[in-house]
Amino acid sequence: RFSPDGSRLAFLACRQGRWSVVVDGQAGPASDDVLGARIAFSADGTRVGYVGIARAEPAAEGAGDGTPKTEHVVVVDGKPGPAYEAVATGHPVFSPDGKHSAYVARKGGQRVVVIDGHEAGPYERYGLNTLTFSPDSRHLALAVGIGDKQAVVLDGRAGALFDQILEGGPRFRAGGALEYLAVRGEQLYRVRHVPD
Q1: Distance between CA 101 and CA 120 in Å, rounded?
Q2: What is the rounded CA–CA span in Å between residue 177 and residue 136?
């Protein structure tokens, strides 16, 4: 895969049953697999990330179903982060200016958002494909589940609770406003936030 500007090349390579992502001729940390065989570049091509998967031995006899335990590790710019139970498909994502990375991971059965290596949350659930940076790269939003309700979290703060945040939201508009559609009872709301 080439970076968006075409100046960098990254690809998967397997050596002795272990997978690495090779970026500009340099192999990154080896793992048992790479989630979704997906390699993500920042928009400016300066940063690259992927999710490595490590498989542990199956649980001892009588201790579980014998399924190998897996750990997911996000690697950004060749540096592995902490291990999690799982990382959302399609992650990590980079801010438009390439300075920030973010992903959603599962830890202790809950979801955490990891922004530049720092955890926020936990949340019970998150909305698929809702993790999004503002056009100026200063703000981050996603939809989460809290009990039987849903909310949009903007810069680490949950907004109003709704029965449902509709597919396609939240999204930042060109001027920086965050918008999404939500349902509470039988009412449909168009919600708009203008971050500070």
Answers
A1: 13
A2: 11
Output the CA angle 32-35-37, nearest 5 degrees: 95
The tokens for 104 are 């959603």
Interior angle at CA 114, CA 113 and CA 118, nearest 5:
125
Name 7's Cβ contacts closer than 8 Å, sequence gap at least 6. 45
**132-179 residue pLDDT tens:** 999 999 999 999 999 999 999 999 899 999 999 998 889 999 889 999
Q: Which two tokens stand for residue 135?
A: 């056009």
Task: Report the alpha-carbon distance of residue 4 to residue 81 in Å, rounded.
Answer: 24
DSSP annotation of 94: E
By the 8 A CB rule, do 170 and 143 touch?
yes
Burial (CB count <10 Å: 0-12, 13-18, 19+), residue 56: exposed
Cα separation, 173 vs 99, whole angstroms: 20
